[in-house]
Design a protein that fits this description.
Bound molecules: zinc ion
Largest sheet: 4 strands, antiparallel
Order of helices and strands: EEHEEEE
Structural class: mainly beta
Distance between the termini: 17 Å
Strand order of the largest sheet: 2-1-5-6
Strand content: 35-45%
Radius of gyration: 13 Å
Number of helices: 1
Length: 78
């Protein structure tokens, strides 16, 4: 298995079709898992509307041993 480093979480605004960095930084995936069990809202940087943060519209950014960045959708991560 390739070594990977967790970098950050991103949220998708379905209205604008863009990914943006989650302003909430919990540090670990486990913390995210716990935090997103209840309703969380964040602000879209484009339109300023409230976007719900749930597993269907979030993804994690990782970096592998070669420095390549890749993403993992939140859905089945936990
Ligand atoms: Zn938006």
């Amino acid at each position: 298995m390739t070594k990977r480093t967790f970098i950050k979480c991103q949220i998708k605004c379905k209205e604008h079709g863009i990914w943006f960095d989650s302003p909430i930084y919990f540090g670990t995936q486990q913390a995210y898992s716990n935090a997103f069990t209840s309703d969380n809202l964040t602000t879209c940087p484009i339109g300023g509307e409230m976007v719900p943060c749930d597993k269907d519209n979030m993804r994690f950014e990782f970096r592998d041993g070669n420095g390549r960045v890749f993403y993992e959708e939140g859905k089945d991560t936990f």
